[in-house]
Amino acid sequence: MKTIVSVLGLASLIALAACDSKQENQVENAYENQADAIDNQADNMEAMADNLSGNAEAAAENAADALENKADATREAGEAAGDAVEDKMN
Predict the structure, then answer these.
(1) HSE-up of 19 (CA within 13 Å, CB side)?
(2) 58 has a pLDDT exceeding 60
């Protein structure tokens, strides 16, 4: 996961250097794709939770919630990175 975040960080630096709206979209799309992947992990965790019971089910549901929160944070980071690219263009 850290590698993906590092790659995304590098991609946003490259995008900042290029400074055009296509680059802004690429940065935002990269973060959005990562967030979608995390959401898929959360969906899989929730499906697994449906087959569990008791404390195991609660733990899996909590893990899914944490993944969903991480996906939301990734989307917000993507928006901020896109805005930074846009600000550099102006």
Answers:
(1) 5
(2) yes
- Nearest-angstrom CA–CA distance, 72 and 78: 10
Residue pair 74/31 in contact (Cβ under 8 Å)? The answer is yes
CA distance 71 to 82: 16
DSSP 90: -
CA–CA separation, 4 and 50 (whole Å): 29
- Buried b vs exposed e over 66-79: b needs ≥16 C-beta within 10 Å? ebbebbeebbebbe
Q: What is the pTM of this model?
A: 0.69
d(CA 45, CA 43): 5
Cα–Cα dist 90/87, whole Å: 5
Amino acid at 47: A
Strands (DSSP E) contained in the chain are none
